[in-house]
Amino acid sequence: MAGLLGLQSCNKTELEVTNLNQPSTDVLNSEAGVIAYAKGFYKIGFGDQNVNSLNDGLGMGMMLIVQGFHESMGDNVFIPWGNNNFKFADNPLSVTLDDGTKVPNPIGAGQIYEMRLRNDRAYGATNAFLPEWTYMYFLNNASNVLLSKLDATTFSGDAATKKKVLQGWAYLWKGYAYSRIGSMYIAGVITDKPNATNGNFVSNTAMVTEGIKNLEAAKAIFAGMSANEGFTSIITNIIPEFMQNTAEFGAISPSAIVKNINTFAARTLLVNKRTKDMTASDWSTILTYANAGLGATDYPFLIKTFSDNSKSVFDKDWGSFGSYTAYNDTYKISERLIQDFNAGDKRFENNFQLAASAVVNQRGRGITFGTRYEMFDGGIGNGAYTYFHYDYGTDNFYIGGTYEENELMKAEALMYTGKVEDGLKLLDGVRTAQGAGLAATAGTGLSLTAAKEELRKERRIALFTRGLAFYDLRRMGYIDPVASGGGRKNAWVLDDKGNFNSKATIDYSYLSYWDVPKNELDFNPSTSTTALKSPN
Amino acid sequence: MRKKILWSLLASCLFIGTAIAQNLTITGKVIDEKGDPIAGASVQVKGTRTGVNTDATGAFSVKAASGATLVVTSVGYEAKSVPASNNLTVRLATESKFLSEVVVTGTGSSVSKRKLAIAVQSISSDKLPSTPTASIDQALVGKIAGAQVTSVSGNPGAPVSIQLRGVNTIQSGSSPMVLVDGVEMGASALNTIDLNSVEKVEVVQGAAAATVYGAQGANGVIQIFTKKGKIGKTQVQFSSRVSQDEYINLGGVHQPLNHSFQVDASGNVVMKNSAGSLVPLAQDQYGYWGNPFWLAGPNDKNDKPYTGNVKYNDHIAQLFKTAMTTNNNISIAGAKDKVDYAINISQLNQESIIDGGLKRTNLTANIGAEIFKDFKIRSINQLVYTESTIGNIDVSSALYTYPFADFMWKDKDGNSTRKMGGAGANSSNPQYYKQYRTYMSKTVDLIPSVNANYKVNKFLDLDYKFSINQFNNDYNRTAANQSNNISSAQFNSYTGEGLKGGIYNSISRYTTQNSLGTANLKFDLANDFGFKLPIVSTTTAAYDYRKKKYTSTANSYVGLPLYAANANQAETKQVLDVYDDLFTTFGYFVNQRFDYGDFGGFSAGLRSDYSSTFGDTKKAQTFPRGDAYVRVSSFKFWDKVSSWFNDFKIRGAFGEAGIQPGVFDRIITLNNVNFDNGPAFYNASRVANPMLTVERSRETEIGFDMNFKPSKSNWFSNINLVGTVWSRKGTDVIWVVPLPISSGASEIKTNAVDLSSKGYELSLEASVYSSKNFNWNLSSVYGSSKSYTDAIYGATDIPLVWGSAATYTLRPGEQMGTIYGYKALTRVDQKDPTGALYIAAADAGKYEIVDGRVVETASRKVQFTPDKYVLGNTTPAFNMSFTNSFSYKDFLSLSMQVDVVGGAKQYNQTKEWMYSEGLHNDFDKPVTIGGVSGAYTAYYKSFYDASESNGTKDYFLEDASFVRLRNVALSFDAAKFWKVPFTNKLQIVFSGRNLMTLTKYSGMDPEANQNTTGAGSTGTQQTTVQKGLDYWSFPNTKSYQIGINIGIN
Fold first, then answer.
1. ipTM associated with this complex
2. Nearest-neighbour CA in chain B from A86: distance (Å)
3. pTM of the shown model
4. Which of A327, A368, B55, B231 is 20 to 30 Å from B822 at the Cα level?
5. pLDDT tens digit string along A275-297?
6. Cβ under 8 Å to B: A residues 252-311
C-alpha cells in the first residue's frame, strides 16, 4: 500500500497536460505573435471559422452569409431556404400582379414578425440577426486585444513605426466594425476593453459616429506615414501574401489605406440616412470623403481565395456569395436585378442567361422566389466585368469600399447638388471601366430624375455582389410598406403559374434596422434607455 | 447492534483466538449434486482458524481434533457442516442461483448476492439472445431493469443507445463506462466485443453502486466477463448463423401516389422553358428535370396521377434492399492442472439495408495459470479487426426528391446523375453516391489485460490488474474521378474533394491504460478467531490509474486518375489536421465492510480522484459511499413463512460519483491558420474555462431482493423479485452557456446545471412450470424514470438546438424531454392564455372543424395557436420486457422476448419535413372542407407552415409507444435427441428479431431516433436530452435467422 501511495506524488506532475494543437495566449507577448494576431483579423472578421452559434448548415462567414442577407434583402438574388432564416428575411409581404391581384406571402406573417420571432436563443443559428453582429464584434474585440498587447511588445528595428502600423490597423477595423454595426442594427455597444463588454447600449447613429471616430484615428496614424521599412515589414505580414500586390492594384501604401478609410466613411454616412432627408451639407461631407477616396489603382481591402484551401480565408469553392449564386443553386438571380440592366449592357450577357426551365414559386414559399435567369461563372469573355470566377484566386472579394463605389458616391453627391452632368460623367466612367459597352449618358440631356434612375440602376449592376443592395433599398425607401409610400413598382415577377408580370408592385415591408440579437441581451442586459428594437 | 459489533471488533484486536489441539488429519472430497468435483471449496474446522481449500479434483486434507465439525462452503452452493471423519465425501447442494451469484462490479471485491447491498444486474450469456449482429449492446436490449436500452438505428455498427436511470449528464452522452474483466475498455466501443466470448455481463446503474469508480462512475458501469476454460473435457464449439434483414416501415411511409403540379390539357406536368412557353416537364440529357410548379392554393388538390410525361418511382424501394448477415464462431476451452484456457474466433459479415457493410473478426484468448500456490496470473487478450464500408446513408435525399425522378436513371454513358434538377430542392441521388463514393474504415482494436492475484494468507488478498486498450482506425472516404460524368462536368456537381475526386483519410489512435491495484483484508471473527459473534470484516483499498491518449491526422488527396489508383496517384496530397491530446486521472478507494452472520451488514468508504481535466488539477475530488442490508428472512421469526417466502433482503445504498470534463476544456488557446506568409492567430468563439470541475452525481437507492417458493408442485416452484427505488441529484453538470457576443466570444463551457432524476425498477424471474421433461421460465424487467432540470447557472434557460428540428430546452424545475410548441386549434371559440379569443367572434363563420381541428374554410388551412404550449414529453413512462423460455427435455427449446416501451412520445420531424413540399403519403388522403371532399394540398402544407414554418407542433408529436417481439428462437438439439457420439451439441436454431411491432406511430420505426442527417454541417451532437426525435432516422431491421451450433468433446 505504501508503494501504491507513493505513486501519487510522482503522478501530480502528469496532471499538468498542455494543448499543443494550438498556440497558447502567451504567444501574444512577442512581435511575431502580435503580427500573426493582426493577420487573424481576416479570419475572425470575414472567414469561415467555425462558430457554433452561427452554423445553420449553409456555411459560414461574412462573405457568404452576411453578404447573402445584404444581396437578397436588396433583391439582387433570392434565397428560398430556411437556413439562417433566409426564406423570411428576403420574402416580401405581398406582391400585386399586373392584373391587380394581390398575392400575399404564402408563408409566415411577414419579414418583421418572422425575424423577431426567431430573435431568440431557442432558434439557434436560424436567428438572422446573429451573423453580422457576431463577426463584427469578434473583429472589434480582436482589435481591442491587439491594442492592449502593443505597449508590452518589444519590436525589432523601427519599433515606433511598427507599433503605429499595428495601432492604426486596430483602429481601422474597430471603425469598420462599429460602422457596420451602426449601419445594420438599431443599437450597439461601444466596448474598447479586451474580452469585455458593457451594457451601455447606444443608438445606431452613435455607433456610426464612433465608427467614424475610430476610422479617423486610424487615418491620423497612416496619414503622415511613408511606406518605409517599418510600415512595409508589418503590412506585408499582416495581409496574406497572395492577397497583396495584385495585378490591378500593386502594393498597399499608407496613402491607399487612408483612401480606403475615406471611401468607407463616405459609404457609412451615405447609407445611414434616407436619401430624401439628405441635406446639401450631408452631400458635401460625402463628396469631401469620396474625393479623397479610392482611385482606380489604389489597393482596396479585399480577400482572395487560395489553391490550398487551408490557406484560404474562406472555402475556395463554396465560401463566397458569388459561388453560391453562380454555381450551386443556393442563391438565385432575382428578376429585379435583371430588369435593372439597360438593353445592350455587355455585363448582362457576360454573366447571365435564361435558364432552360424557369423557377416558379419555389417550394410554394412565395412568388418572388422565382426566376427565368441564372448566373454563370467566368463570363463569356466579351470584355465586360465578370462577377464571379470559379477559378481560385481570380476574383477580388471586396470587404471595404471600391473605386466604382467611390465614383458612384461622388456622382450621386454631384447630381443631388445640381451637378447632374458631372455626375453622369462619373457614372459613364464606371460603365466604361466595367466594359458595359453602353452609350454615354452625359451630354444626352437626361433629367435629374432620369439621371438618378440611371444611378440607382448602376449601383445595383456595378456593385452587385459587394453587399450594398439592401442599404440602397433602405435609403431610397423601397423597403417601406406600400401604404407608407414604399415598395417597388413596375417590378418583374413570375406568378405561381409561371406567367411573367412586368408591372407588379412588391411590398417588401422589411425592417430598416435590425434589433439587437437576443443572444446578446440575455447575457448583457441593457443599462441604457436606448431603443433595442427597430421602431418598425 | 452497531455498538455491539464495534465492541466485538475491539475485542478481536486484544484476544486472538485460542488454539485447539490438532491431532487428526482428515482427508476427503467435495462434490456437487452431479458428483463432479468442486475446486476451491473452503473446508473450515468449526471454531478454529484452521481451514483449507479443495484442489482441482475437489480433494482436501485438514488437521482437526477428534469430534470436530467441518464447515464446507463454496460459492454457489449451500454451506454444509459435517462431523470430521476420514475419507469424507461432502456433497454440496446448489444454492438458489439468485442468492449464490457472486457480483464484482461496484463492490471493490467479490460479494455474494446474498450479502449485496447495492443493485447489480447480472446477466449470464445464456440469457443473452444471439442477435444477428452478435454484439453485446444489441443483446442487452430489454435485459436491464430500469434502463432505457434502445436500438436507435438499423445502420450496421451504429451503437445502441444506453441510458441507465435517467439523464445524468448533458455533455458526454449517457453511455456508461465499460469494463472488461475488471479494467476499463476506454478506447473501443462496447459493440466491438464478440458476444460469443462473453460469460456474463454485470451492470450497475449509478453513483450508489458505482462509487468505486469515482470521477468516471456516474453514468454507471457495464462490466463484461469473458469466458474461462473449465476443468473437464476440452470443449470445442462451432456455430454458424445466417440471417436475412429487411427494413422496417411500420407506418407505411411513402411518397404520395398523386401530385398537385400544374398540368396541361393532356395531364402532363408542365414547366416554363427559356422561350417562355409552357411545355411538358422534361428531363435533360444530364438527368436534370425542369422545374414543375407546385400548386398549393386553396383549390389545388393532390389528386393528379403520375401519368404521361412523369412516372411514379417508389423511392423507399429504390433506397432500401434486403440484406444478409452471416456469423461464424469457433471456440475451444478447457483446463488442466493449474492452467485454464478459452480461445474464441468469430467472424461477422453484415450487409447494410442501404449500402455497404461491416465485417468484424474477433480473436479472444483467456488463459489463466496458478504459478505457485495461491498466486494466479490471468491474461485476457482480444484482437478485433473491423472493416466497414458503411457511409452512404441517404434517407433524407431519397425521401426529399419528388417521385417523378428515377434514381435508377442513367445517362448515355450509363452514369447516374447527382442532382435531379427541379425534382427536389434538398435532394440528391443515392445511386450517384453508390456509384462514385465508397467508404472504407479499418479498425484494429486491441484489448489486452493481465491480472495477478495473490492470496497472501486467508486474510489478505492482493490483486493487480492492468490493461491497455487501443483503437486504431484508418478511415477513407474515396470519391472517384467524376469528370467524365456529363452532368457532373456540366454543373460542377460532385461528391468529395472535387470533380476529379479524391480521398479524405483520417488516421486515429486512441490508447487507454488502466492500472488497478486492490488489497482485500478479510477477518471472520467467529471462524478465524473463535469469537462467538459471527462478524466478518472486509477492508478494501485500491489505487486506480488511468491514462488516455488520442492522436489523429487527417489527410486530403485531391484529383484521382480515371483508372484505378490509390492516394499515391492523387494530384495533390495534403495534411489537413493533426491533433493529439492526453488525459490522466488517478485515485484511491478505501472501503470497510462488516457482515454479521447471515443477518446483515453495512459498509462505508470513499474514493478520491485527481485529474488533468479538473480546473485546479492539484485538488482531489472525493466521493463518499455507504450501504447496508438486512436479511429479514434470516431472523427466527421468519421461520413461519420461510417455507414459501424463502428469502427477503432489504438494502440501501448511497454514493457519489463523477463525470470528467473534456480533455482540454480548461486550457485556453488561440485558433491558428497558416497563410502563405506565416501563421495567423485568432480567438476561439468558445472560450475555455480554467475553473471547470468534475460533474457530480449523488444517488440514494433502496431496494429489496425476494425469493419465493410458493408451491411444491410443478407450477411456480421458484420466484425471484428484485426491486429498487432510486433518487439522484447531479450538480456541476457541464454545458455550454452563451456569453455576450460583444465581449468577443459567443460561449463558454461551464458547470452550468443541477439536475435530478428519480425512478424505480423491478425484475422478476420465475420458474412458471418445471418438471423432468418440460420447463417454462419467465423473466421480466420493468423500469421507469424521470429527469428534471433543477437549476441553471449563468442563463435562465438552455435551448438545445439541433439543426432545423424541434428544440428541447432546459428550464429550471421542468422535466427533461419536454417539448414546447404550437397546438392546433380544436374549437373556433378557443381562448389564449390571457382569455382572449384566438379567432374573433365575428370571423367564427369563416372556420370549421376538420378532423378535430379548426380549418379556415376559404384557405383550407389548419389554424394553430400563435402561443407555445407544453406539448408533451419524449421520455417513455416505462420500459418493460418479458422473456419466456420453454424447454422440452434437453433437445428442444423456445424463447420469446417481448419489449414494451410505454407512454412514449416521439417528434416526427421527418414527417414535418416531408409535409413541406407535399412529399408525404398523407397528401393523398381526401378531407372534407366546406362540404367538399378533396386531398387539399394547402390543408396538408399548412401543418408545416402554420404559426411558424417548420415550427414544433402537436400534430407531429406522436405516440411512439410500442410492443415489439424482439426475439424469438426455436432450437432443436439433434445430439441430445439421437445421442450422437462425440458431440454434446448439434443444435439447429431458427430465430427472428423485431418480427412484429404494435404501435400507433406513423413513421417507419418508433424505436429509431438516432439522427443521421439533417443537422447540416453543425458539429453539435444531439444530446441525451434530445432523445425521441425522429429526423431521417435509419429504421431497424426485421431479421430471420437460421443457425447451427455444434459442440464436440
1. 0.95
2. 12
3. 0.91
4. A368
5. 999 999 999 999 999 999 999 99
6. 306, 308, 310-311
